[in-house]
Amino acid sequence: MKIETRAEGREQSAFASIRRYARPRQARERCGICDAGLAAEHAHLIESAVGRLTCACEPCAILFGNQDAGRYRRVPRDAWFLPEFQLSEVAWEGFSIPINLAFFVHSTPAGRVVAYYPSPGGAVQSLVSLDEWAALVAENPVLGRFEPDVECLLVNRVGETCDCYRVGIDACYKLVGLVRMNWRGMTGGTAVWNEINRFFNGLKERSSHA
Questions:
Q1: CA distance 119 to 40
Q2: Phi, psi for residue 54 in degrees, rounded to 5
Q3: How far is residue 120's CA from residue 89's CA, in Å, rounded to a whole number?
Q4: At 65, is the pLDDT very low, low, confident or very high (cuts 50, 70, 90)?
Q5: Distance of CA 142 to the CA centre of its chain
Q6: Could you tell me where the DSSP H helices lie in 40-129?
Q7: Is pTM, for the whole model, over 0.85?
Q8: Count of beta carbons in the 10 Å neighbourhood of residue 171
Q9: pLDDT tens, position by position, 123-159
């Protein structure tokens, strides 16, 4: 059995330190306003004029996200599952969205509600008929309480389900990102549909019922 000398021990410790600093460090998200490091779960702000999301630390989210006439608005973290939401097949077809997955948001710059759906290339915008939307609001008054720019109606009609949620717009863009990263071939492949199912299972688990 070899007995390690004190000098050898110090040498090995030095090499261990070098190896530790030589390892590539994982990229860490940073606040888009003050550049502070961010935790995995952090706030988001939206720049309403251009519809751009910004990651933010909690102090910046509080400072800049609660100003009535400010540049940014804070995106709510809460999510609600809407089991009583009324969305018929006829109403859905009236929106002319080519897939069974979409989110709707009142855009301040556009001055109206717009719809987006995920695709392999990112979020695709689809104009919403004002009459069709007014009819949907008449059946579902909760839509009148959504905050412009930051809260969305997220609709999942994939398979046998027709689930509707009230969520922050960052959750919708997370779904768009999952589709874009995992889509393969013409139909998407098994991986992307597994990710979509995992996303909605997690969303339903953390949602309040409204």
A1: 25
A2: -130, 130
A3: 25
A4: confident
A5: 21
A6: 58-65, 89-94
A7: no
A8: 20
A9: 999 989 999 999 999 999 999 999 999 999 999 999 8
